[in-house]
Amino acid sequence: MAKQLPYMSAPGTLTKILNKVKDAAVPSTFNSDFLSTVLGFKGGNARTFISWAKKCGILNTDGSPSDIYKKFRNPGTSGAAMASALKIGYEELFRRNEYAHKLKPNEIKGHIIEITGAEAKSRTAEMIQQTFMNALAFANFDTANELHLNTDTPDEEIQQTPDRLESLGAPKAHSSQLKLGLNYTINLVLPKSDDPKVYSAIFKSIREHLLD
Description:
Elements: H1 11-23, H2 32-38, H3 44-55, H4 67-73, H5 78-89, H6 91-96, H7 105-116, H8 123-136, E1 158-159, H9 162-167, E2 187-188, H10 196-209
Antiparallel strand pairs: 1-2
């Protein structure tokens, strides 16, 4: 099934906007007024940046700047932030080749045509490629794995603190038991069960072997 990839209708404007984003203060909401009045980019072609940025995780769905946006403005994390943004917006491209950022332009174009189902000489495919390449100039994939972004903790990975354990039904430990010289974080994956005895056994084991 053909998929759409994010792009700007005027890809060359992307470079200019991203440079201005680095210089301007972070707005509470990145909207067309901010784009035209503060950054100085007017017209429909420039406004397609907002849609592109949302699909790449640079802006949240409500238009507020994301953690990636803020990391991008930091010279020390800018390249890694853009690399993360491209992996979000062009997830299908990186799924097909995890080193998509190292592919030659014609190879990238080939993947785009295959993913989107566009014609070989499609203007849309060309704009997607140019937008990707222009954003790629800001990215540094060598440091992308070192970037720490604020994300929601998966439901199955529960950070087990004493209060958290108690809320899940674990016996409350005495304060003397918690005065340890080291702090530990336990990621506990609980099995699905309708039998409360299963969870009681788990928490009892934690109390006896980890909290004593």
